[in-house]
Amino acid sequence: MKQKPFLLLLALCCCTVLYGQHPVAGVIRDARSGQPLAGATVSRLDSVYTLSADSAGRFRLFIPDGVALRIAVAGYETVQIIPKGTVSLTIELQPLDKEIEGVVISGTMKAVRRSESPVAVEVYTPQFLKKNPAPSLFESLQNVNGVRPQLNCSVCNTGDIHINGLEGPYTMIAIDGMPVMSSLASVYGLFGIPAQLIERVEIVKGPASGLYGAEAIGGFINIITKSPDKAPAFTADILTTSWKEHSLDAGIKFKPAKQINSLLGVHYYNDQAREDRNKDRFTDVALQHRVSVFNKLRVVRKHNREASIAGRFFYEDRWGGDMRWSKRFRGTDSIYGESIYTSRWELFGGYQLPVYEKLTISFSATGHKQHSYYGNTPYTATQQNGFFQLTWDKKKGEKHSWLLGTAVRLNKYDDNSTATRDTLTGLNRPDKAVLPGLFIQDEWQLNKKQLLLLGIRADYHPVHKSIFTPRLAWKWKWKETQVIRLNAGSGFRVVNLFTEEHAALTGARAVEIQEALLPEKSYNINLTYSWLYQRKKLVLQTEFAAWYSRFSNQIIPDYDTDPGKIIYKNLDGSARSKGITVNLDVKYRRRLSVLAGITFLQMEKKTVNDQGHIIRVTPVLTEKWSGTWTISYTLPATGWTFDYTGNIYGPMRLPLGSVYDPRPAFSPVWSLQNIQCTRKMNTVLECFAGIKNLLNWTPAKNIPFLIARTEDPFDKQLQYDTDGKIRVTPENPYGLSFDPSYMYAPNQGIRLFAGIRLRVH
Asked: 411, CA 20 to 30 Å: which among 292, 434, 586, 631?
């Protein structure tokens, strides 16, 4: 009996020799950071046998002579090798800047392969964001085709994200699929997220209200954070620039309990250097002091059921204005400054119920408090939002996959403006609303090549009553490497203009609301064609998209009727947005990487005047075309990587202050370009340095002035006609008031930057 184990081992060895099999072991790592790639898939191409690398990226298996192995992991190039004999391998995978084949959730609220999603989803990895390092995700998105960070004030530098020309409030921001819901999310939702915690960023262009509700009328940005199970033990990014900007992102993983994994992230940003290089006596860049803390907990459960909760706290002290300003002038009318104190907290998570069916409870809650002075004009606001959602993911036969859900949203908003004041009694009345909703969608597999998605959502608003938003998506896998997607749907948005229009807060123009504002609605159709070509060491992916959107009840601030006012009302007519976009993604020999794109768009609002004539107007701050590029070259043997990134924008109409305003009515063609070199020192340390804004371009060049009347920011010296309009005088030859809204691009010139990255595995 004692000889049986020996005989069994001998028999196995004989079988191995007989069939020519030999053991192969190895470790799989990131080619740039050296980080082990846990869960990487190792497949034998002669069979269906597949295994996954362990938490240290290691694997071991037996293969016959001459059989190839395929190693793949989402976000990295796939490689094939033919091991010779008994070997121990070290396999380094090159990260993709833009994921070709990853898992996405934003299009259908389900985890699916990107190529299988009926909704076109763009995915950007941390490797892409590192090409042009920035202290916030807001700035990092400037190299995404069709996405533009827009600064709305040349004094305080607050801004929002434009997708295909639509302003920030038309885009919903989410973290891990949970909406960070508030009108201010488009401004602050992308600031202060520790870069060390970002797994990927998913972007859906076009309305997603049929699945996510209000605010997702023009697009959806979903920030997916890393799972505490797979994150490195410790990470840190330190960045500094010649303009004396300093930022730190750090992340650490720990286990507070046996079945709980935690990931803690900290973001810190400090810019206290006053710069006035355009000599207008005002700061070129708002000074900022920002801190953000993020923590994510994940509970290990049976059957890999989801249970996670995460929270973030954000605080920022920001000001811009007269170079002589200090905090003692806050709120006074002697020296002008715009000072904004912002505190914000967010809590979100998900829990899969312990039942046979896949039922998941998700929630998010946010609180936002802002205490600001725009000169001597105060703006104090508080906003609380809650969101609760129950979804049922149900497979029905071989061809139907259902998603049914119910959601409820709670909004409360209060400020010191006319937005929450009863015009008759003068009493303060905070805006409160409860919005319940139901949605259902069916993914119908028509055949092996075609997938049809049908969905509808119904929301109930206490003022606007029932709002229905249907959606349709069709995917045709024409060939194995070619996919056509057709998406159509509608969206809606309930407007709170005071949290969305910075110009309404500056006091530069009088605000006039001419009617009770109705919810905006949109109808959209989007056609996308993608083609993937792979041959030997070349990977090429192209994507072409065309879209058309029509808006009704749209609220567009009117700067033209009266230069001294901003007039808000629902559009008596319609607004349209249409365009095409092309993306090109090339990888060659794991060395050269090119990601480039161009977008052409046309936006206009159409109304009929009293004489019955059709009036077409292009909204301000909307470019007609734009382009982006990222070119990288890596020398694996030496550890060096070189990146050249940039964007270029066509002319856009700008808000003038009067008919005599000498500033150009349209912006010039402008471009921001950057270079970076990175050296991977070892598996722990990486150093990088470069130059931002190589052309030293700013919007203040070649114009008389950027900010109107900085010598009289409180309008004390203005003279008015009998009808209340500003009078043209020798001291004010252009008939202007103080106005910082003439802003379309960063007012920050060329600068050097350098930093280090640490990864402890």
From this structure: 292
**What residue has token string 């319609």?**
574
Q: For the chain, which domains are there?
A: 17-93 (2.60.40.1120), 103-224 (2.170.130.10), 225-742+751-760 (2.40.170.20)
Do 224 and 129 touch, CB atoms closer than 8 A? no
Nearest to 87 by CA among 14, 21, 26, 40: 26
Q: What are phi and psi of 567, to 5 degrees?
A: -105, 130
DSSP structure string for 342-366: EEEEEEEEEEE-SSSSEEEEEEEEE
pLDDT at 281 over 70: yes
CA dihedral for 491, 494, 500, 506, sign (positive or negative): positive
Residue 62's beta-bridge partner residues?
A: 23
Whether the CB-CB separation of 209 and 490 falls below 8 Å is answered with: yes
Task: Supply the DSSP string of 170-236, one letter for each residue.
Answer: GEEEEETTEE--STTHHHHTTSS--GGGEEEEEEEES--HHHH-TTTTSEEEEEEEPPTTTS-SEEE
What whole-number distance in Å separates Cα of residue 46 and Cα of residue 68? 8
Per-residue exposure over 677-713, b if at least 16 CB sit within 10 Å of its own CB, e if not: ebebeeebebebebbbbeeebbbbeeeeebbbbbebb
Q: Would you place residue 286 in the very low, low, confident or very high pLDDT band (cuts 50, 70, 90)?
A: very high
Distance CA 27, CA 121 (A): 31
How many Å apart are CA 637 and CA 472, to the nearest integer?
49
Q: What is the mean pLDDT of the chain?
A: 84
User: Could you report the per-residue pLDDT of 133-175, keeping only the tens digit for each?
Assistant: 999 888 888 999 999 988 888 898 888 888 888 877 778 888 8
Distance CA 734, CA 660 (A): 5
Name the residue with tokens 């008919």: 659
Say if residue 8's pLDDT is above 70: no
Q: Which two tokens mark 2? A: 């004692």
Q: How far is CA 285 from CA 179, 637, 740, in A?
A: 30, 41, 13
